[in-house]
Amino acid sequence: MSSVWLVFPFIGAIRASTVLAFVATLLIVGWYRRSPVVALVAGMGWVSAFEIVFQAVGTLYGRHDAQHLFFLTFSMSGWVVAAHVAGIRPHPLLLVAWGLVFLGWLASGFQPNLFDQPNRFSFVQEVFNMATKDGLAAIYVIGALAPFGRTKRPREPVPLASPVTAPSAKRESVRT
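^ that's the sequence the OP posted. Answer follows.
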């Protein structure tokens, strides 16, 4: 169980797979988009989107109160919006597939393995957690590399009007 978690000072326990997915997102998106800022926005976007959904379901299951969900959503939704503004647009069909996996997790009991409950570790629940969290990371990376609904820009600028030609040498520019 302890090999699933990395414990950071001042932050706490985070799943090793989450840290690896975040680092992979930073490296892949940063390299492809040539922007560490866009890479950070992509990483924080998927982490925030996952946590909002995860905490909302946890609230429905009675694990959190509505005020906790409100403040978490309020504080983290900016990253999701920033990802959209930065051109990171996950494909809707991939999000539907992700939602179906998340529903499968709910159908299996939605008992996430928590750091402070080492005696309740479930391999099936951990697989669902990793599939949903890391799956959403992959969907955001794909959305950064090939944004949904965005056509490729033309390589050369398209002229707005026909070019202005100089007056012909045979004609006079001013008639008298």
